[in-house]
Amino acid sequence: GSTQANFYYSDHIMLGTENRLIYGLQAGVGQRHIDLASLKWDNQYTAGGFDPNAPSYEQPQKRSFYYGDYSAGILYRFLANRDRLRFYDITLMNIGAALYHLNTPRIRFSDNMKDVVRPKFVIHGNGSILAKKSTKLAVQPSFMYNKQGPAQELIFGTDFRFLKEGKRAIKLALEEAKRESLPQDLIDRVEERGMLDGSFELT
Known about the structure:
Layout: E1 2-14, E2 19-33, E3 45-46, E4 49-50, E5 64-80, E6 91-100, E7 120-130, E8 137-148, E9 151-164, H1 169-179, H2 184-193, E10 198-201
Antiparallel strand pairs: 1-2, 2-5, 3-4, 5-6, 6-7, 7-8, 8-9, 9-10
Helix pairs in contact: 1-2
């Protein structure tokens, strides 16, 4: 069996009105356990089939062990035109990186085992770029690259967003305004007017 408990901490640093640096740390404790009664070994197969009472001659040095697991990540966010009332006038860019299993945890039931959890490197980004100034059409590209040991993966693509005005605008606009910590006077203006109703995305 496997059990893991993780603890997280994150914070951000404002680098002006349009730039923000966000960082996070993760510390965890994992536990692995073997129930020998549930295992079947080659030595227990005889001419008559499987014999659960036959000796396995397998005795792991450790039936249970604990290990630490640590990770860290950082994200840079650029948000232009934060003072605009209409959110389709905002240009957004996020780019971040993270490294998991910094300490290369050892997964060993025996001193002879050399199994480890290899560090995993991730870099990702996404953005929202206006097709034309003050237009409701935006291109929203994104990508993610993962590497762990010899394994690598690259995912990329884009959305095309079109916003239209409507009565349901106020709720979505307020949620976005508060999430981005925009000035209170701008949030008040959003409450008075509202602006977007929905979106169409093509991936």
